[in-house]
Design goal:
The complex is a heterodimer of chains A (about 90) and B (about 300). Chain A has three helices and four strands; from the N terminus they run βαββαβα. By secondary structure, chain A is α+β, with helices and mostly antiparallel strands. In chain A, a hairpin with an 8-residue loop joins strand 2 and strand 3. The radius of gyration of chain A is 15 Å and the shape is elongated. The mean pLDDT of chain A is about 90. In chain B, helix 6 links the parallel strand 6 and strand 7. Classes of the chains: A alpha+beta (about 90), B alpha/beta (about 300). At the A-B interface, strand 2 and helix 3 of A face loops of B.
Chain lengths: ~90, ~300
């Protein structure tokens, strides 16, 4: 099974068209292997991106250098998956 | 009636368990529900819909299509759909709204529109979204089945890169799962409503996704959607944003509801079910039934409007 150890989900706030285009540049970069859960669209809607552990540093640096605001909404994706798996096994047992 | 079998609606299930439960619903309500095979997936899994009909034999009754699980990782949508299936069957004859809807129309419910993807999320990669078709010349698998419909195919908001999560596929209907639904709906020819259930971020949207241009029926769809969102919120206060796909979430070409709308199915809506983002696509199982219950109120509002405004 594919694992997501150390992967995090970032919520990024965009305030103008310039920030949307900067962010699009980031999410379209093939080598960072980002998985966009909620795409950049309008200013009122934050963007959610799954960032693999190997890409955490470069993504953080990019966001910082471009002045993009972000927060980490899921700190440990694998922990969530493990909990879900446990819950499913428990339900199956029931 | 729910204690007559051991299916737990408050839990996530395998494809086999969902298919068994569809069979069981059909068995429990033989006068109302039948499980119909409408096609198969790329990896040759069957695609089943539950057909709810009170008019045996009259094939071209006006109909409603409820679609769920097209993006395989959005598990709350498949779970909500199977709960909804049992709800439709058990409320018929008791709840005047669903009774009168079914006296006039048929309902077709597809709980798992992307069976290969769903199995893959349970066995290999929980976050898989696409189909599992092979892309010749690329190491990457699958296409986004909600970019693969013949509605401004390969336009804005879809990718031509097979490795992208929003890859539109080599041509419209290239994904056999999409083609199966398209063929079924076209062959039937009398669908009046198409609702796609997704999850993430609580939205209720209507065409278009592929353009910012206003749909000819946008005012009516907006009014219906706002009423549906209010009904949904009445249960536990879940707030939905309402509007056209393109400006409410993001531009997306080749989507199911845009195809439905462009092919004469006026009442075309997309739900994005409950999920703040803090759970990713891993909405805790104890929220399945609350989500299904509130969604039901929204669905019922739309279906009642369709019933009263057949065209």
């Amino acid at each position: 099974r594919e694992k997501f150890f150390g992967d995090q989900v970032f919520r990024i706030n965009v305030r103008n068209g310039d920030e949307i285009s900067k962010l699009s540049q980031l999410v379209n970069s093939d080598n960072l292997k980002l998985n966009v859960w909620k795409s950049p669209s309008t200013f009122s809607r934050p963007v959610d991106v799954l960032v693999p552990s190997v890409s955490l540093q470069p993504v953080k640096s990019f966001l910082k250098s471009q002045g993009l605001e972000y927060s980490v909404t899921i700190k440990d994706l694998q922990a969530l998956l493990d909990n879900e798996d446990e819950e499913m096994q428990h339900n199956e047992g029931q | 009636e729910r204690s007559s079998n051991n299916f737990n609606y408050g839990a996530y299930h395998s494809l086999e368990a969902i298919y068994r439960e569809m069979d069981s619903i059909a068995g429990d309500f033989p006068e109302l529900a039948t499980r119909v095979k409408i096609g198969h997936s790329f990896e040759n899994r069957p695609m089943y819909v539950l057909k709810f009909s009170t008019a045996e034999g009259r094939r071209r009754r006006p109909a409603i299509w409820l679609n769920a699980g097209i993006h395989s990782r959005e598990w709350i949508s498949q779970a909500t759909a199977i709960w909804t299936a049992r709800k439709i069957a058990s409320d018929y004859g008791k709840d005047p709204a669903i009774t009168t809807i079914l006296e006039k129309m048929d309902i077709f419910l597809l709980p798992v529109a992307n069976p290969d993807g769903y199995v893959y999320t349970q066995t290999q990669n929980r976050l898989w979204r696409k189909t599992r078709s092979v892309n010749p010349g690329s190491p990457c698998i699958g296409a986004d089945p909600n970019r693969n419909w013949n509605a401004s195919f390969a336009g804005e908001g879809a990718s031509d890169n097979p490795c992208s999560e929003i890859y539109h596929g080599p041509h419209a209907n290239s994904e056999v799962e999409v083609k199966s639904v398209v063929d079924f709906i076209q062959e039937h020819g009398n669908f009046k409503c198409f609702i796609d259930l997704h999850s993430y971020s609580q939205l209720l949207m209507y065409p278009y996704g592929y353009t910012v241009k206003k749909a000819p029926d946008a005012d009516e769809l907006d009014e219906v959607a706002r009423r549906a969102a209010r009904a949904l919120a009445s249960l536990s206060g879940t707030t939905y944003q309402v509007g056209p796909t393109c400006t409410t979430v993001y531009p997306a070409s080749g989507s199911s509801v845009d195809w439905a709308y462009d092919h004469g199915i006026k009442y075309a809506f997309t739900f994005e079910l409950r999920d703040t983002g803090h759970y990713g696509f891993l909405l805790p199982a104890n929220q399945i039934i609350p989500t299904a219950e509130e969604t039901w109120l929204g669905l019922k509002t739309i279906m009642e409007h369709v019933r009263d405004n057949l065209y």
